[in-house]
Amino acid sequence: MALEGDLREFPLTDIIQLVDLSKKTGAVYIGGQRGVHRIEGKIYFRDGKISGADIANLPPLEAIYTCFTLESGHFRFSDAAEDTLEKPMITMSNEVIIMEGIMRQEAWAKTQDQEPLLDVVPRLIPNPATGSSEISLEAEEWRVLTMVNGKNTVRQIAQHSGLGETRTSEIVTRLLADGLIEKRATPPTEALLPEFEQIAASVFGNKAPLLLQEACLQAGLVDLSDASLEHVYGVIDYLERSAADGFGLEQARRMGADLRGYAHEILGER
Known about the structure:
- The structure is a single chain.
- By secondary structure, this protein is of the alpha+beta class.
- The protein folds into 3 domains: 109 residues, no CATH class; 70 residues, Winged helix-like DNA-binding domain superfamily/Winged helix DNA-binding domain (Arc Repressor Mutant, subunit A); 80 residues.
- The protein is built from 10 helices and 7 strands.
- The longest helix has 21 residues.
- It is globular.
């Protein structure tokens, strides 16, 4: 089955419906852009039904919903043996997934229209002005609130909570509006670490944090919190060499380009 193209011309909803109609088994490889962040992975199908997903170390359902928020990108269907799952990770129907995905897409667009939040570091307000009213939060909102410590970015909270970036951004937006948390002013370099970990994880998986730490040490840094652009490029060079040794030159160059692009976006010509 030849299915490949641009997500702007052929959105994820259409892809899912086409694979469903054709009753195909395999995986759709997706690589897309959301702001300055690149997301790559694949969605698995069995007999046309979504059976799993492997994207950015997210739980399968959250991985699929994340794909609905991509602004642009490319997709390709493969029915090779290595692109099939023996045991399904997801049993929810395609229709329900599409409906929820569209709602996540709309919710994500709304939060980004207000202000991008993923790289914001929230902190608790010691004495919130709630007046005489009691604080009433849902279980998911309490889960996010307990992870607000003035160090974690919203992106990291989303990863640790398992709620996904869209739902976490919604909750953080509400907590900010309710005066329970506030945004902590952060130096630009603090935004590098979570994004570098995510980009590196697309190649190294769970080993990304450890390799990033080794790369910092090789570049003469304790971490990326006070790094010059020259030092950051040294970190990237180390990661790129490690990726080339283990995963091939093409994958290493793609990762390196993403890392350099994000570093330049954040640090400019420091």
